[in-house]
Amino acid sequence: xxxxxxxxxxxxxxxxxxxxxxxxxxxxxxxxxxxxxxxxxxxxxxxxxxxxxxxxxxxxxxxxxxxxxxxxxxxxxxxxxxxxxxxxxxxxxxxxxxxxxxxxxxxxxxxxxxxxxxxxxxxxxxxxxxxxxxxxxxxxxxxxxxxxxxxxxxxxxxxxxxxxxxxxxxxxxxxxxxxxxxxxxxxxxxxxxxxxxxxxxxxxxxxxxxxxxxxxxxxxxxxxxxxxxxxxxxxxxxxxxxxxxxxxxxxxxxxxxxxxxxxxxxxxxxxxxxxxxxxxxxxxxxxxxxxxxxxxxxxxxxxxxxxxxxxxxxxxxxxxxxxxxxxxxxxxxxxxxxxxxxxxxxxxxxxxxxxxxxxxxxxxxxxxxxxxxxxxxxxxxxxxxxxxxxxxxxxxxxxxxxxxxxxxxxxxxxxxxxxxxxxxxxxxxxxxxxxxxxxxxxxxxxxxxxxxxxxxxxxxxxxxxxxxxxxxxxxxxxxxxxxxxxxxxxxxxxxxxxxxxxxxxxxxxxxxxxxxxxxxxxxxxxxxxxxxxxxxxxxxxxxxxxxxxxxxxxxxxxxxxxxxxxxxxxxxxxxxxxxxxxxxxxxxxxxxxxxxxxxxxxxxxxxxxxxxxxxxxxxxxxxxxxxxxxxxxxxxxxxxxxxxxxxxxxxxxxxxxxxxxxxxxxxxxxxxxxxxxxxxxxxxxxxxxxxxxxxxx
Length: 697
Prior knowledge:
By secondary structure, this protein is an alpha+beta fold. It is built from 15 helices and 40 strands.
C-alpha cells in the first residue's frame, strides 16, 4: 500500500542565499540581512551568538554531565532496533557511539527474537562519509521487489530536507556503477521496474513549485540522460508537490500520479499503460489509499454522493474497480463521535486495523471484509494512557503486526502478533530515568470560548500543589498533528528525574479530535490555538501545579510559532520560553524556503489575509517596551524547510532591545536541529539547562 496524499517533506533544497536574493528588501525590516543563510554577515552573527550561548549555558560541570547523560541515552545499544521487512531479511538503521552517522544492517526474524541478534552490515554511513568527505544523513531506502536486489537510497548533506538518490546493489552491498542517480534537490525516485523509475525533482528553471518542491514528474529509462526522461505530468507553479508512484503489490500492480495543491488538498490519478490519467473522483480534502482491491477514503469534510451524506472524519471503503466503473457504494468503517477520531489505519493481508483516539487515548478495532459486509471486532489489549501503534510486517503475505506500546513513564514495548492471537513480546526498551516517584494524569482546561482542552500532566505523586514546581509545558497545535504519550529518555533525564513537572497540551490545530479540531484553528481562527495553550497554562497555575515564575514552555516548527505567540501575547504567564526551529516572521514566511506550502494553514500575507495574520506574527507583535521572560532560540543553518532567518531576526530584534535572550544555531542538522546524536544531546542539554537556570527565580 502506498500513501499517495502525504507530501514527503524530507527532500530538496533551494540554493543557500537564493531566497534572500530573490525577495526584495522590506524597508521596515532592519534585520533582513540575517536571511542570507550562509552570508558572511549572517554567519559572523551566528557564530558570535553561539559562543555567547555556550559560555552562558554549556561551561559548567552540570551541563557536561547532562549532555553526557543524554548522549548516552541516544547512543544506547539497548534501545529497540525497529525493523522493516525487505524480502527475507529484517532491516534496521542504527546509530550509537561507534556509529555516529549510522549503519544500515539486517538480520533474520529468528535472530531478531534474540536478546542480542547477529546483524549483517549492509551500508556504513560513517565509512562512506570518510571515503567521500561528506556528512551524509540517512533518508531511507526503497527496494525493488520481488527480487529485492536493487534499492534507491536517499542521502542528505548535513540533515537538510534536500537529498540525493543513489542506486545500491543489495546483493553485492555496493553502489551500482552508472546506476540511477538523482542530484541534490527536493524530490525523489520511485521504482517502476528494474530499468525504469519515476523521477520528480529539480529539472532546472521553472520546474519547482513556489514552495520549492517538484512541479514535474517524468519516466526515466536506465542508461539514458536524466534530461531525456519523458514527462508524465506537469503541475502548476502554485501547486505544492507533484509525484508518481507504482503500487507493486503482486497481482494488483498499478501506477498513480499525485498532485498535491496544499496540505490536505490533493488529487490522485490512476495512470494507464498508455499513459492516460484517470482521476479518482473524490473530494481533494479526503485522504486516499489503495490496498489490493480496496479504495479507502478518510473524509475531512462532509461528502454527499449517490444520495448519501457521509460525515467528516469518517472512513469509507469501496472496491477500486467498481469505483472506476462508476459505482458509488461505500461501506462506512468508522464514523467519529464528539470524543473520538481516527488516528490511522493499517492493512494486513486479510484485515484492516483501525487506530482510534478516544479523548486522546488509543484503542484498536479489527475490520475484516466478508461476503455480507465488513465485520468488526475490538482488539483487547492495553488501557490507561498508553499510546498504541501498529504496523504490518508484510501486508502482502501475512496478518502479522508489529505493535508498540508506550507512555511518558513506561519504556516502549515491541510485540509481534497475528491478528486474533495474543502478542509475543520481542523487545522492551530499558528505563533511562527513575520514574518511580511520578504519575500521569489527564486534565481538561476551558479555553476562552468554553471549549474543553485536554492536556497530559506528568508530576511527582507527592506534588505539594503550592505553585512552586518547575513545570515545562509543551505544545504544537497545527497541521492535524496529534500529541500522544511517548517515552523520552531525554525528557526524563533532563527534566522529570530532577523533580520537574511535564505537561503536554492537546490544543486545536492538532488532530486529537480529527479534522474538526484542526480546522477550528486555521487561518483567521489561528488565535484559538493560542487561547487554548494559554488556558492550559492558566489551569496549571490556578490548580497550584506551578506559578508564572516557575512555568516554562517549549515548541518547535509550528510549535515554535505557538510559543513565539505565547512570548509576545501572554508574557506574564511564563518564566522562560524555548523556541525551536520556529516560524516567527509571518509577513515573509511564504517567501522563505518551503513557506508557500503552508498558506492553507496560515493564509497568504500578500493579500487581505495579512489583516488577521499580523495578529499572530511574533516578529511584528514584539514591543521593545514590554517585559518578556528569558528566551532561548534554537535553530539550524541547514534547515531548508523553516528558514533560520525567522529565529535569527527575532533574536536580533530582542537582543538589540535589551531583552534576556540566548541564541544557538547548529550549523548542521536540518529541520530536526541535529545531524547526529552528539549534536542532539548538546541542543537538548542547552534547553534543559536554560530552563532550570531561569525558572523559579
